[in-house]
Each structure stands twice: as C-alpha cells, then as structure tokens.
Design a protein that fits this description.
It is a single chain. The chain has about 400 residues and is mainly alpha-helical. It contains 17 helices and no strands. It is globular. The protein starts with a helix and ends with a helix. About 0% of the residues have low confidence. It comes from Yoonia rhodophyticola.
C-alpha cells in the first residue's frame, strides 16, 4: 500500500520541484520521472520483489486510464490530416527493424544461442510490443529461458532508447532531417484547437488543482473509467494471449469516440490528468528495472539488441531523408515501432508536438497488428539462412 501511494504522489513532488527550479523544468518531468524510477530500482534492489504484483497492477491501471483522457482532449480528424507522412515513416520503421534483426542474426549467429528465435521475437517486440514478443514465442515454439532473458533485455534497452529520444533525440535527428512544419487544415489557422495542449511546462499541471476545473476533471475521469470497463469486458471474448492487445485497441477506439463528444473534448484538464497518469506509469515501469543485468550481462545477446536498435534507427533515418520526412515524424514512428502505444504521449510531449499524438498512436496500433506476422517471417527466414 505504501509503495502504491509513493508511486501516485512522487510525480506531483517532481512537478512541484520543476515549477520552482527552471533547470529541472527544462529537463522535463518525464525525464525526471524515469530517472527517479531508475534510482529507486538501483537503491531498493531485491526489496522491490515484494511489490511486483503492485507494480504490474499500478502500471496497467494508470496507462489504461491515462490513454483515453489524452485522446479525449485531441481533435482526431485534424491531427490525422496534419501528418500524412506518419504511415510511411512507420513502414520504414518496421522494415528497418526487420532488416537490422535479420542482418544482426547473421553476425551474432556463432555467439547467441538459438539466434533465429531471438531475431523473430525481437522483431515482434520492436514492431509492436511485449504482447507481440509473447505471441511470436508461442508461434515458433520458442525457448522459455530465451524468452525470459529477452523480456529483461527488452526493458533495459527500451529504457536506454527512451532516455536518448527524450533527451537528445530531436537534436540528433535534426542534423539529418528537416524540422516539423504544421499542416494547415482547410486553409485555416487551427492553433486554437490545440491551445489547451500547448503548455508543456510543469506549470501546466496547476490546472488540475484549480477548483473551477474539478467538475470537468471528475467527468472525464469517470468517462475514462467507463472506457476501461468496456474495453476489459470486450477483451474477455478475445484469446487470452491477445487480451492486452484488445484492451489497448478498445481504449484507443473509445478515446477517439469520446473526442467527438463536446463535453469531454472541451474539458481543459483532460490532457494533463492523462499525462499525470502516464507519469505514474513511467515511474512504476522504471522501478521494474532488473539491476542484476549489469552484473550478470550476456554481452553477446546485449550486443545483438544494441545492434537492432541502432541499426534500425540509422536505416530508418536514411529512408526518411530520402523521402523528405521530418524529424518529429521520424521520432514518433520510431517510438511507435520500438515502444508501442503507451509511450507515444511521452514522446510527443518531449517533442512539444501534439499534432503527432493521434497519428503516432494510430501507427503504433498498426504495429501491434503486423508485428506478429513480421516476427514469424524473420524468425523462419533467419533459421533457413543459418541452418539452426
């Protein structure tokens, strides 16, 4: 119970500090939240084993409630029209992950056990999510030991990826790709539609404690809870291995429906309340870091994972440059591929670009749908090539 209260309140403490220390505000509350979570994991160590169930429940509930709240606040049609390159960039991201995984498997075939399984499951994880990783493992009858190792490495390397993207990603991508240019919809200035999302500073969260906003905040929170209930109920009819996927699809769909309902869409606190819950998700997820990986590292497997991430990002940015896709769309598509739906609001926030929020979530859902097929194809192709 104490751990849950701590996870729910620490983001508020970080927001409070960021409002008073400009350097922390420039760093961003998302980065601060991840950093604090990693510090807790490092210093608490094995003591966190006692709260594993709470960590899992809290991360699932916070992201489930947060996603509809964020989508409620967005003009979905306008957001989709503003970024026509997102789908193409996602295609490049998925192709890049497959190519990097396949070529990396050829390089690491002599040092990574059952590398064909690793290649397929890695593609599932990095074109969809951990859900796809599990599905690919089941489809190819993968080793349980390899699967468990991959979950740990996926968490660690994804965390490193996020830290890079949130801290210097936009700056580095800007060395190769042009800046993002908003697209006017219907020839009119649409900035007012996104005005309530424009405050990226820690001060923006002050609206959550403004008394005049309490009624609206309760309304959208109840609506989000109803969306979660409906999504969970519908997911109960899906195969067990795909329940999480169906819940995400349901939450995204119901969030989009809610964005067309005026009383929900116009609530000025919806976005920041959703982002606060995403901060809880980020903090809780970061505390799940298995620090033993740093003392008992499988360097070959670690090198393979690093090769996939770095190789995929380089190949994707080359393709985006050739097709004149901007830096923000590239980063959103890369995040949609490697990190999946729950992290899109985090990346969009770090980029200070709300135009790409809904397109990013849409292409991330596409990754869920295609990741299993791509993972199985790459696994079988790798096995055929190296003869394991």
């Amino acid at each position: 119970m104490f751990f849950a209260i701590l996870m729910l309140t620490l983001p508020a403490a970080l927001i409070f500090l960021a409002q008073r220390i400009p350097a922390l505000d420039r760093l961003g509350v998302v980065m601060l939240t991840f950093g604090l979570g990693f510090l807790i994991a490092i210093f608490a160590g094995d003591k966190l084993a006692e709260v594993r169930d709470i960590q899992g429940t809290l991360s699932e509930v916070s992201v489930a409630l947060g996603l509809p709240l964020i989508i409620f606040s967005t003009n979905v049609l306008m957001a989709l029209r503003r970024s026509k390159g997102a789908l193409l960039a996602m295609g490049f991201a998925m192709v890049s992950v497959c190519v990097a995984s396949f070529l990396g498997a050829l390089v690491f075939a002599g040092s990574v056990s059952e590398v064909w399984q690793v290649s397929g499951m890695a593609v599932g994880a990095y074109t969809g999510s951990g859900v796809n990783l599990s599905a690919v493992k089941a489809a190819i009858d993968g080793s349980e030991d390899i699967f468990l190792k991959m979950i740990t490495y996926d968490l660690v390397f994804s965390a490193i990826y996020m830290l890079v993207i949130l801290s210097v990603g936009q700056r580095l991508a800007g060395l190769v790709l042009r800046p993002y240019a908003p697209v006017a919809v219907g020839g009119s200035d649409t900035s007012k539609e996104f005005e309530h999302l424009s405050d990226e500073s820690a001060a923006g969260y002050n609206r959550l404690i403004n008394r005049k906003n309490i009624a609206g905040t309760l309304l959208v929170l109840i609506a989000s809870g109803v969306a979660v209930g409906i999504a969970v109920a519908l997911a109960g009819f899906a195969p067990r291995a795909y329940e999480s996927l169906f819940i995400i699809l349901g939450l995204t769909s119901l969030g989009i429906v809610g964005s067309f309902i005026g009383p929900l869409h116009r609530v000025s606190t919806s976005f920041h309340l959703g982002m606060y819950l995403i901060l809880v998700f980020c903090l809780t997820t970061a505390t799940m870091l298995d620090t033993s990986i740093f003392t008992d590292m499988d360097w070959a497997l670690g090198g393979y994972f690093a090769a996939i991430l770095i190789g995929a990002m380089i190949l994707q940015i080359v393709l985006c440059r050739l097709f004149d896709i901007d830096r923000d769309t590239y980063l959103i598509a890369s995040g949609a591929s490697i990190m999946s739906v729950p992290f899109i609001p985090v990346i969009a926030g770090a980029l200070k670009n709300r135009d790409l929020l809904i397109p990013g979530m849409a292409i991330a859902v596409l990754g869920y749908a295609l990741g299993n097929y791509l993972g199985v194809v790459v696994a079988l192709a790798t096995r055929s090539m190296i003869g394991q």
